[in-house]
Specification:
Order of helices and strands: EHHEHEHEHHEHEHHEHEHEE
Radius of gyration: 20 Å
Largest sheet: 8 strands, parallel, barrel
Strand order of the largest sheet: 1-2-3-4-5-6-7-8
Amino acid sequence: MIVRFGYVAMSTMVKNASPSQTMTVTNFNKLSDREAALRKLERIGAENLHNTLRLLFHNRAYDIRLYRFSSKLIPIIGHEMLMDWDPIPLLAKEFAAVGDYVKEHDMRVSFHPDHFTVLSTPKADILQKSMADLDIHVRMLEAMGLDEQARCNVHIGGSYGNKETSMERFLLQFEGLEPRIRRRITLENDDKTFNASETLKACESLKVPMVLDIHHHWVNNDGESAADLWPRIMETWKSTGLPPKIHVSSPKNDKEPRGHADYVNPADLVPFMRSIAANTPKLDVMIEAKMKDEALFHLMKDMRHVEGVTVLGQAAVKVLP
């Protein structure tokens, strides 16, 4: 099995290259000239996209083909006080430059909208905001010129006192998304509410690919192993033309098992990879450790000492069963 590794949004190695620079609503409101304030937001957005491109250059240098964009590329976009402001067309050149580089170097990219984007909500206003947020994410991918292999990953959401009803509501409200948005979505199991088995059932019902988070599964499961669920999870990816993708992180400590550690312990990943290697030709692994790309390189060094694992370049390995 060939495994590629990627990281999330920020680099701890490339200095002064944050793709998530922002302006708070409070600071925006302090500026007396609204047009000047909007231009400042646009400049920050342009710089975030420029820094994203710098990170892609960095990724290319180390042959990292898997990367998650920051959801904060454009500060406070979608806020209720800015509904008359649409910066995406104004930043067309910057978005296109990012997308062109992604396509030129065959990178797999995605977004993971923030936790307030929830489709299981019983509140109409939150649902409307969640749908609008997904639309913004998809519009950014479209502005990059990226096809539907570039995805947005979301969780099902909260249970709101009744898990079964919440799941039914999620399925119904998911179907209310525009088709162009639905086709971009992947669903991930979470660490507190909807576990891997439940998320998988939703994915099968909606015909949506599932991103398995093996850390979340460890702290929230029905007793089944991730390997037992894997054949069905892999099937959800069959029509996409993409390798299945998983998320990995190690627990911060025994007292905070849900928290993410700075680095990934190979022991939290290798047994799972071995268990699926015989029937999974390719796998993409998103590292969600606090040290970002540094954690990726740290893991690659550790992999050199793992039996049955062959390091292939700087961000990929071959795993034997």
